[in-house]
């Protein structure tokens, strides 16, 4: 299994290098050896308990698109003081590797929903846990992040102004799709309403431990869109409904002279396809 894990690391490093994020480029410039890729000393500080300051929940509404509310799941007044409206649908966005609340696809999904109506959009920012050069964290950080998201779900369920789990729609891109599924394992206040997996990653999920994967038991309805299946994305099926756009492996307009850029494009094309489905 070590060889498979190393191969997945190589694919992801190449993928990140071709996404154009300057932060990844700068961090990789500090890497001199393979051991450096697995350095965790500067990534997440102990104790590893929820809530954790490196896992934050930003609430966006039509009134706070530029200045979101930072939710404190230990303080009842935090939700009272926010712009959260329990009568509006609540969407929870979970980004992928090297992502964050200020990067696509989090921003693209957020903006798309506000073009169609009023929503509570909660973006989970756990960017410190899934960045280079802290790759060995990806073995445990999804579970840790899922535990903290589940705590946020419990906070909303028990709050007088909150909503129960069955009214939540979690959506995760790449590794975020699996984190959404893992969250279901820690939710104790009911079953999640819906999970949308946006090209769930195959990276770090090539082994036999399928308990980490998104699956139909994780919510009342699990829908999955596959656009880069086989290399960066999983084949599945992962949900009640799996959609294989253009066959699920290669997408129009993604071909280039660089195979890595082509594969990266296939993987990221899932977001605009999903946005087209928002009504």
Defining key terms:
single chain, 279 residues, alpha/beta, Rossmann fold, eight-stranded mixed sheet, 9 helices, 8 strands, 32% helix, serine hydrolase activity, secreted, signal
Strand order of the largest sheet: 2-1-4-3-5-6-7-8
Terminal residue distance: 43 Å
- Quickly give the CATH architecture: 3-Layer(aba) Sandwich
Which stretches of 5+ consecutive residues score pLDDT under 50? Answer: 1-10
Question: Which CATH class is shown?
Answer: Alpha Beta
Report on this model:
The structure is a single chain. The model is unreliable at 1-10 (pLDDT under 50). With 279 residues, this protein is of the alpha/beta class. It has helices at residues 2-17, 22-28, 34-37, 76-81, 106-114, 141-158, 175-186, 259-268, 270-276; strands spanning 56-60, 69-71, 90-94, 120-125, 168-173, 194-198, 221-226, 241-244. It has 9 helices and 8 strands. It has an 8-stranded mixed β-sheet with strand order 2-1-4-3-5-6-7-8, with helices on both faces. 32% of the residues lie in helices and 14% in strands. The protein has a single domain (7-277), classed as 3-Layer(aba) Sandwich (Rossmann fold), CATH 3.40.50.1820.
How would you summarize what this structure contains?
The protein has nine helices and eight strands. With 279 residues, the protein is an alpha/beta fold.
Topology:
Elements: H1 2-17, H2 22-28, H3 34-37, E1 56-60, E2 69-71, H4 76-81, E3 90-94, H5 106-114, E4 120-125, H6 141-158, E5 168-173, H7 175-186, E6 194-198, E7 221-226, E8 241-244, H8 259-268, H9 270-276
Helix pairs in contact: 6-7
